[in-house]
Amino acid sequence: MKYKYEIIYPKAEVTKVTPVVMTLHGMGASYLDLRPLVSVFGKNVIELHLQGDLNYRGGYAYFTPEFGKKAEIDVIGNVVKNIHDQVQEILKQKKLQNNPLFSLGFSQGAIINTGLSIFYPNWLDVVVILSARLPAFYIEEADKNLVGRKISTKIFISQGQKDTLFKPKIGREIATFFRQYASSVEYHEYPSGHTVNCNTPQDINDWVNEVYFAK
What we know:
The chain is of the alpha/beta class and 215 residues long. The chain contains five helices and nine strands. It has helices at 72-93, 108-119, 136-145, 168-179, 200-213, and strands at 5-8, 20-24, 46-50, 54-56, 59-61, 101-106, 126-130, 154-160, 185-190. A seven-stranded mixed sheet has the order 1-3-2-6-7-8-9, with helices on both faces. Strands 4-5 form a two-stranded antiparallel sheet. Helix 1 (72-93) packs across helix 2 (108-119). The longest helix has 22 residues, at 72-93. The mean pLDDT is 96.
């Protein structure tokens, strides 16, 4: 498979309602990076951590942002498809294709999560988008294929108020964008830079318990 991954099962019995939680890291990190955050979804989940296939600054990346050489759709678009296809294959092999599917991504992983929610609407039951941006071809895809549709995916978006890489207004734009197509969109800003704020895990936990597990 293209992306190295690890899958971790809970101690509790796995049933058809046990969520599979996928994580997608930021540039220069690894599939270990977001593992501590999975606990926001509770203990009884199956963890699926995917690692970028490109070496980058001592870690890994899913793509390198050299968009002067290739269009974003050719770089990011292919990654979104490849990740979707590999995860589908893993879920099929493990007989988990009918279980709820969650995805948590930071930075580059969050950009991919945004794309997965647009190109494969309703594939994800819950998606967490931490410090992302919205490529123009995502908007074009939504204009073509999402107008008049409602995405059932529960979406949590956050952005740092001091983020110099992706300004806070970008997070607001992503939230506004998704509110056109999804009925459950939560947006938070934190007084921090391009990182996961210390209050974010509790906010995600409170939110997912309210909008998903309490239903």
